[in-house]
Amino acid sequence: MKGKHFLKLLDFTPTEIEDLLNMAEGFKEQKKNRISHKIFSDKNIVLLFEKDSTRTRCAFEVACADLGMAVT
Q1: Does residue 46 form part of some domain?
Q2: Considering its fold, how many domains does the chain have in total?
Q3: pLDDT value of position 51
Q4: Residue 4 lies in a domain
Q5: CB atoms within 10 A of CB 69
Q6: Which stretches in the chain have pLDDT values below 70?
Q7: At 17, which CATH number?
Q8: Is 64 domain-assigned?
């Protein structure tokens, strides 16, 4: 999946979506066990939301920081 952008579900096969969900589950388990997993260190991400939502923005920022990303 290297080089792919997640813009819509239709860009991915069902197998790729299942792989993404399994990877997310692994990251969640690592966080629960306090295992650092900065897999995306030195990467940047821009968060654009259609509606204002402090809770959503904060949740995404925390998740990105957990994975090592810088957020704009």
Answers
A1: yes
A2: 1
A3: 86
A4: no
A5: 19
A6: 1
A7: 3.40.50.1370
A8: yes
- Report yes or no: 44 and 69 within 8 Å, Cβ to Cβ: yes
For the chain, what is the largest distance between any 2 Cα atoms, rounded to a whole number of angstroms? 34
pLDDT value for 36? 84
**Prediction pTM value:** 0.67
Where in the sequence is the domain holding 35, given as residue range(s)?
11-71
DSSP per-residue codes, the chain: -TT---S-GGGS-HHHHHHHHHHHHHHHHHHHTT----TTTT-EE----SS--HHHHHHHHHHHHHTT-EE-
Token look-up 């096969």 returns 13
Query: In Å, what is the CA distance from 27 to each residue of 15, 36, 53, 60, 64?
Result: 18, 9, 24, 14, 11
